[in-house]
Design a protein that fits this description.
By secondary structure, this protein is α+β, with helices and mostly antiparallel strands. The strands form four sheets. Strands 10, 11, 12, 13, 14 and 15 form a six-stranded antiparallel β-sheet that branches. The two termini are 52 Å apart. Strand 2 (116-120) and strand 3 (124-129) form a beta hairpin. The chain is elongated, with a radius of gyration of 27 Å. It has helices spanning 3-9, 17-29, 39-42, 47-63, 70-79, 86-102, 198-212, 218-223, 311-319, 403-412, 419-422, 427-449, and strands at 109-112, 116-120, 124-129, 134-140, 156-163, 166-173, 176-177, 181-185, 193-195, 215-217, 236-238, 241-247, 251-260, 272-278, 283-289, 334-347, 350-365, 368-385, 391-398, 455-457, 464-465. 31% of the residues are buried.
Length: 468
């Protein structure tokens, strides 16, 4: 069936948005549509038209590959769709959103030629078609063992490179293999392969090491030196390193990505710019990348509720009095607390709780809660037990900031022997205990809401599994 025949058959059909997406999904994936999927909109078309649309879906499954995607493009044009599955859209949107929301630098170029650009964020890899001006492929890190893309402080790192038509993704820890690694043939979405062979990994690792020498420092080459690069008004994110390459059209070049700020001074998800410097002509060319940004994908997360059996912690967590000044969260984020209790002392009819209390703001990226901000407050909390067995906060004494921090702790510990010292003993163990509590609360949040959360993650650190 030709695209014009499809268009003719659809002239009197008005499927809703969900049905349009379902039809496209099945054409791309090569699956037949079940008849019951059409019942909800059969009443809006004639029997003949209904038969035509079923014929369209079944027929195009067979011919789309042979026409190199022409049928999908035709259906997309008629339906006003992007040609990407919901899964692909989520990876694209979350990757671009995470880059602008949680990264210090714009993404580094993994590969660039006159037709294609490859870059990545914490969620996955984007392959950008410079001719069609669209994302042609995406790879979801969360479907692999490669979850360490922006890890700068941990031991395990995820790397990727493109070589001779193949994109390789792998982990490395101190020059050694860790986890499985993968290859992707970019002209065929179904050709992803998984490997566990150490000898092959070593070959891939040495290839990557050789390609990794192909970069220069962006700040030194352009931001500090300018060299034809003019910054726009406001802050700008830029790739930490620039890609050195030979263009068939322009010759010897260096390229990097920038993300300009919006009117509020924040990096914009809607505008990524590829900057290419022609070394021979000493000329900088800029190319806006057309990247989709779906604001509806930022779903508001449900609030955290403490469901444990400790009435003292319940009173502290539910009041949020400790963290009211120590955290910030965006509209689509959730606040989840953490705590470290050093002592509990009963005195004069009150219970005094001494500890450090945290508030963490997270947004959801697939199966991972990404920490976007957080705050800590050392405090003494005074509570009174109620007739129903619960506790009520009656007073809070907080430490100050900076130089006042230690002095504040000393003041509110006065009259309670030995408590002040506990705040500063065995600090390394304090971090471990805090993270145990943090994991417990994230796990509690997932059990409450069943959002599919498997990890939480701080910027630059390895993801932490809540299942281990």
């Amino acid at each position: 069936m030709k695209p014009e025949e499809i268009k003719l058959a659809l002239q009197n059909i008005k499927p809703d948005d969900n049905t349009k997406e379902e039809i496209l999904e099945n054409i791309i994936k090569g699956k037949k549509k079940k008849k019951r999927s059409y019942r909800r909109w059969f009443s809006r078309m004639t029997v003949a038209a209904a038969a035509s649309i079923v014929l369209i879906v079944v027929t195009t499954i067979g011919i789309n590959g042979a026409t190199k995607g022409a049928v999908v493009k035709a259906v997309c044009q008629m339906f006003g769709l992007s040609g990407q599955t919901k899964e692909t859209k989520e990876v694209i949107n979350q990757t671009t959103r995470d880059i602008t929301r949680n990264m210090v630098f714009a993404p580094e170029i993994l590969y660039l030629d006159d037709k294609m650009l490859i870059f990545a964020g914490d969620r996955g890899i984007m392959v950008y078609d410079r001719i069609e001006k669209e994302i042609s492929h995406s790879i979801d890190f969360q479907k692999t063992d490669c979850l360490f893309w922006d890890t700068t402080t941990g031991e395990t790192h995820t790397h990727a490179f493109y070589d001779d038509g193949m994109l390789w993704v792998f982990n490395e820890k101190d020059g050694n293999k860790t986890g499985k690694f993968y290859s992707y043939l970019l002209d065929d979405n179904s050709s992803a392969k998984e490997y566990n062979d150490t000898s092959l990994w070593k070959e891939i690792y040495h290839k990557w090491k050789k390609i990794d020498r192909n970069y220069k420092d962006t700040f030194t080459e352009f931001i500090n030196d300018k060299k034809g690069f003019e910054e726009e008004d406001g802050e700008i994110m830029y790739s930490e390193r620039c890609w050195c390459w030979d263009s068939k059209k322009q010759g010897n070049c260096m390229s990097f990505i920038t993300v300009p700020s919006d009117e509020k001074g924040s990096p914009t998800e809607k505008r990524f710019v590829l900057n290419t410097y022609n070394i021979e002509k000493e000329q900088m060319l800029s190319e806006d990348l057309v990247l989709p940004s779906d604001k509806k994908n930022s779903m508001a997360l449900p609030e955290f509720e403490y469901t444990g059996d400790d009435p003292i912690i319940a009173a502290i967590v539910d009041s949020k009095v400790i963290n009211s000044e120590a955290y910030w969260k965006s509209d689509s984020a959730v606040w989840i607390p953490g705590y470290l209790i050093y002592d509990k002392i009963e005195k004069d009819g009150s219970l005094y709780v001494f500890g450090r209390f945290w508030g963490f703001s997270y947004y959801l990226n697939g199966n991972t809660l990404m920490c976007e901000s957080g705050g800590e407050q050392a405090a003494r909390v005074e509570l009174k037990k109620q007739s129903d067995g619960n506790y009520q906060i009656v007073d809070v004494k907080k430490a100050g900031d900076g130089a006042e921090y230690q002095e504040g702790i000393k003041r509110f510990c006065k009259g309670f022997r030995g408590v002040y010292e506990k705040f500063f003993e065995d600090i390394n163990n304090h971090d471990k205990r805090r993270e145990e509590c943090r994991k417990e609360f994230v796990k509690m949040y997932e059990e409450q809401n069943q959002l599919g959360i498997e990890y939480y993650k701080d910027y630059g650190w390895e993801p932490v599994s809540i299942k281990k």
